[in-house]
Design a protein that fits this description.
The complex is a heterodimer. Chain A has 2 domains: about 90 residues; about 350 residues, Porin. Helix content of chain A is about 15%, strand content about 40%. Chain A has 6 helices and 20 strands. In chain A, strands 3-4-5-6-7-8-9-12-13-14-15-16-17-18-19-20 form a 16-stranded antiparallel beta barrel. Chain A has a two-stranded antiparallel ribbon with strand order 1-2. A two-stranded antiparallel ribbon of chain A has the order 10-11. In chain A, α1 runs antiparallel to α2. The longest helix of chain A is centred in the N-terminal third of the chain and has 35 residues. Chain A is elongated. The relative contact order of chain A is 0.09. In chain B, α5 packs antiparallel against α6. The N and C termini of chain B lie far apart (about 75 Å). A 4-stranded parallel sheet of chain B has the order 2-1-3-4, with helices on one face. Chain B is built from 10 helices and 8 strands. Chain B has 2 domains: about 160 residues, Rossmann fold (3-Layer(aba) Sandwich); about 110 residues, Rossmann fold (3-Layer(aba) Sandwich), CATH 3.40.50.1980. Classes of the chains: A alpha+beta, B alpha/beta. At the A-B interface, β12 and β14 of A face α3, α4, α5, α6 and α7 of B.
Chain lengths: ~525, ~300
């Protein structure tokens, strides 16, 4: 801005001088005094320029060391303004170059052999065009210095949070007319034809020096193409608690097992494992609550996590879930308010990981979820889980390929199904349900992954409950995924489902094929292990 | 007797304290690790997260890395988004305030470095472009000196009793590199302005330093695998410009480079940005020695 004023002043002064020059008959003394005036003005301009340069140099010293700012000069208006301005051509002293603003980029002025005559023994050992200053003068505001400093959106400018958008779609074909009964997850394909079950906005960033904030808002289209919105996650997390502790609070996925805490678009298959959808629920286990975690000070990775959540509604499926139309497992549910600590869902987890070799990692964990359910006044639910992950990745991996990943989860649920509200159901039962899945992913070539998965679910048979969600079943799935980049994917998956006969339901087989596609815009969330 | 026991006890204690007094340093990438070793010597314990032979853009965020970061007194990272895909979740989980950005324990090597090829518009249509500029900068020895100095000053601040030691090691490193630069510069001088092909655009700093042009790439865009049509173009360009060398890194598909080399009479040259990425290059100086001699041999 100052520059423009300066140019303005110079132009005005010189224009005046010239106008007078041309108009009036030159009287020697007048000419002389004008000349003096012009000279005085030129001196002033020079002085101002010098001051300006000094100031800019000072500014450059304090700010200009930020690496990103210097090679990409925003001072180009100056360069543009100097040459075409008539003032500049007249005032020969006006600077046409300003190293403080327009830094010579490394590519444009190769310091090496700049004159083409560099001889051996005279090879430069310093280069101010690449190393802008000695590190001691580097401001700590270099690349994203403070936690609260704006961070880049998709690598673009600076902002206070990362924003990304994720669209996950599937084209489904199935021998079943009721695909929504076959697929167990709420974000899985729910009907033949096209499905848009997971269109997601994600935000994250540093709240202040003490907290980081995360939010995932999911839009999904139901089978009638109406938009449903869910606040999938929105939580803050501490950054600087002592003793290796970390606190999380808000709405979040419970740390139960491997699949549950992750978002559907990061899954290796187009749908949720059966045991996950049927025991933890179609939306997984998530809710409003708090969680504390502690990294155990031992030489390997060992972490304890304890979460507590309301566990109410569909996202607390096996817990305080009033069910569809007030019915769950055929009982009319109580839908009561919290009475005490026992009505929360308590979710402990312990996970451990070791590196078997520089290319092999294993991670094993045990989880639990304990709370009450709505099928009776004092009905309780306990879920236990165990998970195991093995991953091999080549020591010469390009883009993360090739790799082999084997993941298995086992879950067992003890569900006390009471007699419903006002003892309206004839019997109380206790269901012992269990299941597991095991999957192997083989990234055989950069961008290409082949996967195979087996699912099994054993639901205790009951003569009193004909709920289709209590049918025992198994599934075998195979898929092939192509990731053109880490921001897009195309996946073809085949499922064969076996549903087993129980007291009420006949057995049946279902074949399904899914073509899933995904795109990500904006800041790409880094991959957790 | 009592005295002896006391002596032994105090020796053990002293040893224990001495062991504890070592700086625990974690480096995200092997080039930073190697420079830290030059500066820190036996006064530091260093753990390097990424392997020298793997693609630094895609490193698994292993849980064991969380343990290393949790115990770190200092973390050396690039700060130029090369580790963007895997470092943030590790740091979130490590919950170590000593290595937060802005703390003396966080050494971001890109500070004070003018990054090349800063894109004017950030669009992923251009492939995997780094918004802050090309992050493969350590292969320029002049930049490596600046990083080493940055590391030395940071170590001195974190461990003042050994400040002179770190400074001395930096001076030694600086002198070695300054002397070596004369050799390297002389070795590359005959090939000034020659064009060289690389698989990925990791070499603008190296090329700039030694006056060659590494400006044709087997990848059509950064991070996008070579396509047959692009390779045809590359072959035509190589023939027109008489390119004699194709640079591949340990994690690239060498067969593609060989195909192109065979079609043009060029040689495939195995390069690495990281000490240890190719055999016999366990220090920074040896790495650049090897790169220069390999490239000079191919360009002859």
């Amino acid at each position: 801005m100052n520059k423009f004023i300066l140019i303005g002043v110079a132009t005005a002064a010189l224009a005046t001088a010239r106008a007078q020059d041309a108009a009036s008959t030159p009287v020697p003394s007048d000419v002389e005094s004008l000349r003096q005036q012009v000279q005085a003005l030129t001196e002033t301009v020079k002085e101002l320029q010098q001051q300006m340069k000094d100031q800019q140099a000072a500014i450059g010293k304090t700010n200009g060391t930020a690496p990103a700012s210097s090679p990409n000069p925003e001072g180009s208006p100056v360069a543009a303004a100097t040459s075409p301005s008539p003032a500049a051509s007249t005032a020969a002293h006006f600077a046409t170059e300003d190293a403080a603003v327009v830094s010579s980029t490394p590519t444009s002025s190769p310091n090496v052999n700049a004159n083409g005559t560099a001889v051996s023994g005279n090879f430069p050992t310093t280069d101010t065009s690449v190393v802008s200053s000695a590190p001691e003068t580097i401001s700590s505001t270099g690349t994203g210095a403070s936690l609260t400093q704006p961070i880049s959106i998709g690598g673009g400018g600076k902002n206070y949070m990362n924003i990304s958008f994720d669209g996950l779609f599937a084209l489904a074909g199935s021998s079943a007319r009721d695909l929504d009964h076959i697929e167990v997850g709420d974000h899985d394909p729910q009907q033949r034809g096209f499905n848009a079950r997971n269109i997601e906005l994600a935000f994250d960033g540093a709240v202040d020096p003490y907290f980081e904030g995360f939010a995932n808002i999911v839009f999904k289209l139901n089978n009638d193409n109406q938009t449903e919105v869910e606040v999938e996650e929105a939580f803050l997390q501490t950054t600087s608690l002592p003793f290796n502790l970390q606190l999380k609070a808000g709405q979040f996925f419970s740390a139960f097992g491997r699949i549950n805490p992750t978002h559907p678009h990061t899954w290796d298959f187009a749908d949720a494992p059966i045991v996950h959808g049927r025991l933890l629920g179609p939306d997984g286990l998530r809710g409003v609550g708090a969680q504390i975690s502690w990294i155990v000070p031992v030489p390997w990775y060992s972490q304890f996590i304890l979460g507590v959540q309301n566990g109410r509604g569909g996202t607390g499926y096996s817990f305080r879930n009033p069910g569809d139309g007030g019915m769950f497992f055929d009982r009319r549910t109580t839908d009561r308010e919290l009475r005490g600590l026992q009505d929360f869902v308590w979710i402990p987890r312990w996970e451990n990981s070791v590196d078997l070799s520089p290319t092999q990692v294993v991670l094993a964990g045990v989880s639990g979820a304990f709370g009450s359910n709505e099928t009776g006044a004092d009905s309780r639910t306990q879920i236990y889980g165990a998970d195991f992950l093995y991953k091999w990745k080549s020591a010469n991996a390009e883009g993360g390929f090739p790799f082999v990943k084997w993941q298995t989860e086992f879950m067992y649920r003890r569900f006390e199904a009471g007699r419903g509200v006002n003892e309206s159901f004839p019997v109380a039962e206790t269901f012992h349900d269990w299941g597991l899945y095991s999957q192997v992913l083989w990234g055989f070539k950069k961008g290409w992954v082949a996967g195979i998965r087996g699912d099994y679910l054993d639901m205790e048979d009951s003569r009193f409950t004909d709920d289709f969600e209590r049918q025992s079943r198994s599934r075998i799935s195979a898929n092939l995924t192509w990731y053109p980049t880490e921001f897009s994917k195309i996946r073809l998956q085949y499922n064969h489902d076996f549903l087993y006969e129980n007291f009420f339901l006949a057995d049946r087989d279902v074949d399904s094929v899914f073509l899933q596609f995904e795109f990500i815009l904006g800041a790409h969330g880094a991959h957790k292990f | 007797m009592m005295k002896k026991i006391l002596l032994i006890l105090s020796t053990i204690l002293a040893c224990a304290f001495a062991a504890q007094a070592k700086l625990n340093v974690v480096a995200t990438l092997p080039d930073f690790g190697s420079l830290a070793r030059e500066i820190g010597g036996d006064k530091i314990d260093i753990i390097v997260l990424a392997k020298a032979t793997e693609d630094p853009h895609f490193v698994d965020a292993r849980p064991s890395f969380v343990v290393s970061l949790r115990n770190a007194d200092a973390l050396i990272d690039g700060g130029a988004e090369l580790e963007l895909g895997w470092l943030p979740p590790l740091l979130q989980n490590a919950r170590n305030p000593k290595i937060e950005v802005g703390k003396p324990g966080r050494i971001q090597t890109s500070q004070g470095i003018r990054l090349m090829n800063v894109p004017t518009t950030a669009t992923r249509a251009a492939g995997d472009v780094h918004a802050l500029g090309n992050p493969h900068f350590t292969v320029d020895p002049i930049i490596a000196k600046a990083i080493a100095q940055h590391i030395a000053q940071s170590f001195a601040a974190l461990d003042p009793p050994n400040a002179a030691f770190y400074d001395g090691n930096y001076k030694k490193f600086e002198a070695t590199i300054n002397a070596k630069l004369q050799e390297w510069g002389a070795a590359m001088l005959p090939f000034k302005d020659q064009h060289v092909v690389a698989y990925h655009d990791s070499w603008p700093y190296f090329a700039h330093r030694f006056g060659i042009n590494i400006d044709i790439f087997l990848e059509p865009k950064p991070g996008i695998p070579p396509s047959p049509s692009h390779l045809t173009e590359v072959i035509a360009q190589m023939k027109a410009q008489h390119v004699k060398a194709v640079i591949v890194e340990p994690y690239h598909d060498r067969r593609i480079a060989e195909k192109v080399a065979n079609a043009t009479g060029a040689k495939v040259v195995e390069f690495s940005q990281f000490p240890g990425g190719i055999p016999g290059t366990n220090t920074y100086g040896k790495l650049i020695d090897t790169l220069i001699s390999r490239l000079a041999a191919a360009l002859k």
